[in-house]
Automatic annotation (TrEMBL):
<feature type="transmembrane region" description="Helical">
    <location>
        <begin position="221"/>
        <end position="241"/>
    </location>
</feature>
<feature type="transmembrane region" description="Helical">
    <location>
        <begin position="6"/>
        <end position="24"/>
    </location>
</feature>
<feature type="transmembrane region" description="Helical">
    <location>
        <begin position="247"/>
        <end position="264"/>
    </location>
</feature>
<keyword id="KW-0472">Membrane</keyword>
<feature type="transmembrane region" description="Helical">
    <location>
        <begin position="98"/>
        <end position="117"/>
    </location>
</feature>
<feature type="transmembrane region" description="Helical">
    <location>
        <begin position="194"/>
        <end position="214"/>
    </location>
</feature>
<keyword id="KW-0812">Transmembrane</keyword>
<feature type="transmembrane region" description="Helical">
    <location>
        <begin position="31"/>
        <end position="51"/>
    </location>
</feature>
<protein>
    <submittedName>
        <fullName>Uncharacterized protein</fullName>
    </submittedName>
</protein>
<keyword id="KW-1133">Transmembrane helix</keyword>
<feature type="transmembrane region" description="Helical">
    <location>
        <begin position="71"/>
        <end position="91"/>
    </location>
</feature>
<feature type="transmembrane region" description="Helical">
    <location>
        <begin position="123"/>
        <end position="139"/>
    </location>
</feature>
<feature type="transmembrane region" description="Helical">
    <location>
        <begin position="151"/>
        <end position="174"/>
    </location>
</feature>
Amino acid sequence: MSNLLWFLGLVLISIGLIYITYIRTEFRHNLAVYFFVMGLSFLMEYIVLILGDAYSYYPKLFSIQWYDDVFGSSISQAFFIPSVLMAIAAFRIRFRWIAFIIAAIYGIEELFLWLGIYQHNWWKSWFTTIILFASVFIIKWWRNRVEDPTFFIQFITVYMAITTIFQGISFGLTSILGTHQYNIGWFVSPYQDHIAFSVLVWIIYALLLTIIIIKYYRFKWLALIFFADLAFQCFMVKMDILEISTFWNPIYFSMILLLLLMLIRKLNNYMFPSI
């Protein structure tokens, strides 16, 4: 069996859980939980995988190993784990079933190790188990908070959505279209170097974008962020930090930015209509 099919199997499980949650629950609350979990996983992966090189994935979709690692991590941390934890919180699953689910995830991790499509560098499977048990309590608490959200709950949820959605688009532009490459000199591998800097940019950038979406979603602010982003991209090109393909242009980044801001604004209004 192709390595990729095992990862696609996790995607199918994730889609099934999301669909069941959608038709049987108040989905806007659970969507907020989903983005929160995905964002937490994303931030942890930045430390553990991108900076720490804790494990490697082998879906064999890309010729570049770091792109394979990010793709495999995305299947796990952007689809599978968030959908499982969202379902646990949405359906108020009891502890004995939670223990069974986490044991099953442990078994899947061990299966992937045995199949050779996933490898630990210094990570251990029991690390995952401990993190999942701790996450369940956090996620259940968050699920209760999104029903009567404060500004803090809204801000963090939208922030998590921005970091994950924008970075996913950025990864696709790089790995599939080859539009751009960051050269910052932090790591020996130029691909690890690019991914580490790209993610860090969005982690910081998303703070400003979240405020705009929630508090200052007006034409003048969107226009300002468009031109500020364009200036930032041009500055990084001038400083030889950003290398752009001949068929691409910095203005395209800013256009995509505005389109995604509009999308996330709609998500914000769906998840938090009362605020």
